[in-house]
């Protein structure tokens, strides 16, 4: 894929410098920026959707939106946060339309967690993986966690992205952590989250 | 919580494998978009890989459908049950003097405590050296809360915990939770600032599975961490020695709950194990017996093997459905249960910090357990209640009647 596009990702290329170049019309720079964040965009879209088609659709729209409005980004250091905000809005929009059209049932609160462990809490913790982590929580909890831990945003920044009170964001993160901790300590039990 | 914090961070930042479909979409979008940009100046057109038409997408800000309404609650804890309790007088406003240390005075203004929630507002008054309008965030990193029996109600700082235990000859372990050391979580925020008195109202919401019926609480903290002007790098730590003691009113420590028992159920296999209505919520749980996946005559080795295979099979099916984007509701219990009182009013699962819900499936015994927290409080409960839920697609109605 990279060969087809004839792109070389420069090691150590700084995001902000690339954004500046992209604003001036450098296509390769914009491509490199997206390559650098494509996994993060996937993870965030994955919080809302399980279908690859849906994830592809919202990320595609996000890339287009970001390209179209790139010059509106005042501070290059906030480009990624700005792009994530676009993505979350795209996800919400698609989700709403699917709920109306298809009697779409969100089942992302369902999970199988196999936490059989005969050993220490630390070893139980080691059994976590991405799928278990993201699917054991509600969407609101997942998105707050991923923005807090993966993007290292403050609760205030997250509250601005999600347009919710900071107290609500703190509440969600705290509750999600308690749930995970509780489930991890509940050994040897297969747990379905409703 | 530090280890868990790190683990969550590690998991979320770990490298993942992207599907070919996704990678193809991103690259094609970039390629086509760059190509169109070269040939169509100042015009961006959306395209689609599948069956969608080309459209122009305008930037818009969309509120998430499921954003909770920002209610002007005292503790901002997103709990209808908590609000109902407060409206019915379940709130305490201690009449206390300020406690001062290092030019900062503090006292508790409001407090509420039940089995699952302990919320309070702390009023912190600063001298003129610190202007509260510059404070964007405030935190008490080493606060410990104990009751009159030296039960640790809350503590997130291990050093403070160990120091307190040493001074009070308590043989407790920081990560070992029991009735004497609560596994309580918290969230906090600045509720309001008073520029005239240069003070801040700080709200703390604590939650646990079961707070004791304490008659006195003492809050200890030696540090106040202040963040100024929304700049997380600009933090100030003020050291001091604050000890706030408060009595707990009888209405809290003599709190009692309404216990219900199952009267009827549309599914004869279902057994209600808990149906209790408290001041701020209702706890409900049931269990049912599923068919065993092994035979009684199977050896232990075969039983373990069958269980292991069943777990792997269920997990693989779940992951397969994820990848194929199957949107069926795979929960064995539906996500919209509710409890209805005699006057027809419905109460849904609570959304506050102390909500606890889920189900478990023990393949060894065949017992499936389900538990839920509803917004129904003592103040609205009727002698008879009905629980509505779905189990494996079947509508279940459980009638409850009051026992006490």
**Sheet with most strands: strand arrangement of chain A:** 1-2
What is the CATH H-level superfamily of the largest domain in chain B?
bacillus anthracis domain
Radius of gyration of chain A: 19 Å
Q: So how many helices of chain B?
A: 6
Runs of chain B with pLDDT <50, length 5+?
Answer: 39-72
Shape of chain A: globular
Q: Could you name the ranges of chain A where pLDDT drops below 50 across 5 or more consecutive residues? A: 1-13, 102-127, 187-194
The CATH topology name of the largest domain in chain A reads Rna Polymerase Sigma Factor, Chain: A
* Average pLDDT for all residues of chain B: 80
CATH homologous superfamily identity of the largest domain in chain A = RNA polymerase sigma factor, region 2, helix turn helix motif
- Helical stretch tally of chain A: 10
Q: Please write the string of helix (H) and strand (E) elements of chain A.
A: HHHHHEHHHHHE
Mean pLDDT of chain A: 72
| Radius of gyration of chain B from CA coordinates | 27 Å
Strand content of chain A: under 5%
The CATH class of the largest domain in chain B is identified as Mainly Beta
Secondary-structure-based class of chain A equals mainly alpha
What's the CATH topology label of the largest domain in chain B? Immunoglobulin-like
């Amino acid at each position: 894929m990279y060969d087809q596009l004839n792109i070389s990702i420069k090691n150590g290329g700084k995001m902000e410098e690339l954004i500046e170049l992209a604003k001036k019309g450098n296509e390769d720079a914009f491509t490199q920026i997206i390559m650098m964040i494509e996994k993060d965009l996937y993870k965030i879209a994955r919080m809302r959707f399980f279908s690859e088609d849906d994830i592809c659709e919202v990320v595609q729209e996000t890339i287009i939106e970001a390209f179209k409005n790139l010059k509106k980004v005042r501070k290059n250091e906030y480009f990624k946060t700005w792009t994530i905000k676009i993505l979350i809005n795209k996800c919400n929009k698609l989700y709403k339309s699917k709920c109306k059209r298809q009697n779409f049932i969100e089942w992302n609160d369902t999970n199988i967690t196999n936490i059989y462990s005969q050993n220490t809490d630390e070893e139980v913790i080691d059994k976590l993986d991405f799928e278990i982590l993201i699917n054991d929580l509600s969407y609101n909890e997942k998105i707050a966690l991923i923005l807090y831990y993966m993007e290292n945003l403050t609760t205030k920044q997250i509250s601005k992205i999600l347009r919710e009170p900071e107290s609500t964001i703190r509440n969600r993160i705290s509750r999600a952590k308690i749930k995970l901790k509780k489930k991890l300590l509940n050994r040897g039990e297969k747990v379905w989250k409703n | 919580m530090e280890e868990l914090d790190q683990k969550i961070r590690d998991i979320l930042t770990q490298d993942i494998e992207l599907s070919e479909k996704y990678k193809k979409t991103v690259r094609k979008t970039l390629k086509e978009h760059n190509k169109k940009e070269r040939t169509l100046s100042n015009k961006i057109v959306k395209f689609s890989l599948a069956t969608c038409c080309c459209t122009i997408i305008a930037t818009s800000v969309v509120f998430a459908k499921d954003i909770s309404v920002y209610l002007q609650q005292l503790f901002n804890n997103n709990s209808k049950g908590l609000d109902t309790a407060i409206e019915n007088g379940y709130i305490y406003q201690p009449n206390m003097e300020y406690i001062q240390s290092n030019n900062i005075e503090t006292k508790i203004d409001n407090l509420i405590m039940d089995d699952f929630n302990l919320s309070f507002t702390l009023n912190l008054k600063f001298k003129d050296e610190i202007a509260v309008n510059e404070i964007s965030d405030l935190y008490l990193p080493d606060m410990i809360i104990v009751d009159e029996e030296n039960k640790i109600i809350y503590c997130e700082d291990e050093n403070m915990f160990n120091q307190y235990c040493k001074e009070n000859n308590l043989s407790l372990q920081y990560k070992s939770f029991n009735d004497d050391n609560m596994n309580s979580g918290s969230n906090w925020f600045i509720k309001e600032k008073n520029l005239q008195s240069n003070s801040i109202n700080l709200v703390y919401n604590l939650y646990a599975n079961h707070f004791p019926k304490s008659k006195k609480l003492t809050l200890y903290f030696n540090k106040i961490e202040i963040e100024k002007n929304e700049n997380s790098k600009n933090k100030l730590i003020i050291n001091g020695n604050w000890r706030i003691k408060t009595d707990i009113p009888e209405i809290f420590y003599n709190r009692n709950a309404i216990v219900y028992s199952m009267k009827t159920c549309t599914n004869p296999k279902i057994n209600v194990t808990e149906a209790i209505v408290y001041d701020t919520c209702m706890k409900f749980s049931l269990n049912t017996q599923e068919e065993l996946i092994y035979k009684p005559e199977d050896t232990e080795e075969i039983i373990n093997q069958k269980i292991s295979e069943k777990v792997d099979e269920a997990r693989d099916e779940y992951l397969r459905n994820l990848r194929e984007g199957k949107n069926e509701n795979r929960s064995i219990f539906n996500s919209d249960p509710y409890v209805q009182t005699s006057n027809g009013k419905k109460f849904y699962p609570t959304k506050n910090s102390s909500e606890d819900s889920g189900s478990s499936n023990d393949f060894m015994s065949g017992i499936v357990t389900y538990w839920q927290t509803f917004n129904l409080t003592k103040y609205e409960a009727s002698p008879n209640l009905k629980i509505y839920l779905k189990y494996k697609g079947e509508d279940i109605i459980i009638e409850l009647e009051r026992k006490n």
